[in-house]
Amino acid sequence: MTAASTLSHSERRIGVGLSVALVLLGLTMAIAARQGVMAVHGAMAMILGIFLVIRIGGAFYGSEPDADRQHQYYDAPTRFGISMTLIWAIIGMAAGVWVAALLYWPEATPALPWTSFGRLRPVHTTSVIFGFGGNALIATSFYVLQRTSRTRLADSISPWFVLIGFNLFCAWAVTGYLMGSTQSKEYAEAEWYADLWLVVVWVTYFILYIRTLARRHEPHIYVANWYYMAFILVVAMLHIVNNLALPVSFGAADSFTIWAGVQDAMIQWWYGHNAVAFFLTAGFLGMLYYFLPVRSGRPIWSYRLSIVSFWGIVFFYIWVGSHHLHYTALPYWVQTLGMTFSVMLLVPSWASAGNAIATLNGAWHKVRDDATLRFMFVAAVFYGLSTFEGSFLAIRPVNALSHYTDWTVGHVHSGTLGWVAMIIFGAIYTLVPHLSGRETMAWPRAIEWHFWLAIVGTLIYVISMWNAGITQGLMWRAYDENGALSYSFVESVQAMAPYYLLRTIGGAMFLTGTVICALNCWATYRAAAPLHQPRDHPLKPQPAE
């Protein structure tokens, strides 16, 4: 069953119309730019639009979907989103392992501009954060929203527009970096036209989510939906404010931000840390609060605590970005404000982590035997550890030692590998069999292999970076009896060699586990029996799942 065959005839006409509009948008971009990055991206949009016209047109006169489809959940977008999640995971993690290796073997860099560290590093961050994490959030949010609301998505076109449009943004971003085009903003490197495109996609996502909630047959809005909504709404606000810019011309990719000086720095890290807060925390807490109880067969330990921690996280997190700017030109009181709220943030963060772990009371035998549930348990543990570390590193005297060192890299990856990736893999291993009409994954033992590769790779990576960062900080602060620096900067770089090698090994192990996951998911879809092809789950009068 193709995605186009799940649409009605009228929806196929709308889909063709949107695809033609995408072709025209790409043509306009290519003509306006004539050459350079924007012209290439216009051509990419044209090719995608033509492909979609052909794909939908091939099923244009096909039979209508089942007449009772409004009484079935719509999971085709979720299946597509999971596939894109794994594709971007492999792309992003492979780029990460490669750039990690270049820090140990810098001479391995080919004499090609697009292979330089400066171009590949944002390919890694964008592919992992937005490609891997973003697709996982969108795909699971569609699934969770329908189950907890006991209703089908409000329409069948919007979810495809959101997923395809979002992946076009990711493709524009990473190909732009390879061609040397960037705004030079951390986690916001994509150029102005890609930013505008993402606004359209994201507003559509938010409207779809609210429309579906308004149609719910379950009177209560489950806590996971609160987290997903916070993720969608606040990310939109952050993206728009941080990326306000004036293009050099409408036919060029270059632009100038409207912010300047210390205001630019403050806006950037208000965006940067709240991207961590609402993209890499709130959304994934929504994922955790649904899939952990489902997999463990246990209700949330304290539903009231989940609501209290939600409001604590939403309120405290928005203030903490200035702790990235200690000892800078930012006013001292703003630095102190960020530090104070960072420490207070530990309370709602640990409330969420503790609530998740306490949910497993009475189900520890399942954690022992079920690698999928073990992914989720480890995610909750790493969430608690990384949030404690984040609050600790925000304290000004500690930050004096840690900032600009690889300790920060270790902290970031304890969150992204240990927390974000682990809960994604737990959700994927829960979803894929269900979406394939199976009881288990095609290769159950491969989940065990993946788990141990992921956990060992994460520990090697994070511990090596902790040691590297503390070593750097101490070497940079060491003075001899004459008051001169004891070590040159080059000596501190040379001391990092064994840690950088270990980081590469840890990252390669994690990447290997991800490839195993992708192959396992592919085999599971392929192994679905003909009579059990993935079908929408029927909507029946029953309590929310």
Detailed description of the structure:
The chain has 18 helices and two strands. The model has no long low-confidence stretch (mean pLDDT 93). The chain is globular. It has two domains: 1-59; 76-530, Up-down Bundle (Cytochrome C Oxidase, Chain A), CATH 1.20.210.10. A two-stranded antiparallel ribbon has the order 1-2. A hairpin with a 7-residue loop joins strand 1 (245-247) and strand 2. With 545 residues, it is mainly α. It is 71% helix and 1% strand. Helix 3 (76-104) packs antiparallel against helix 18 (497-526).
Number of helices: 18
Shape from CA axes?
globular
Spatial separation of the terminal alpha carbons:
26 Å
Named at the architecture level, the CATH assignment of the largest domain is: Up-down Bundle
CATH top level label of the largest domain? Mainly Alpha
Provide the structure class: mainly alpha
How would a crystallographer describe the biggest sheet?
Answer: 2 strands, antiparallel
> CATH topology of the largest domain, anyone?
Cytochrome C Oxidase, Chain A
Q: Give the number of domains.
A: 2
Q: How are the strands of the biggest sheet laid out side by side?
A: 1-2
Order of helices and strands: HHHHHHHEEHHHHHHHHHHH
> Helical content, roughly?
over 70%
Estimate the mean pLDDT confidence. 93
Low-confidence stretches are none
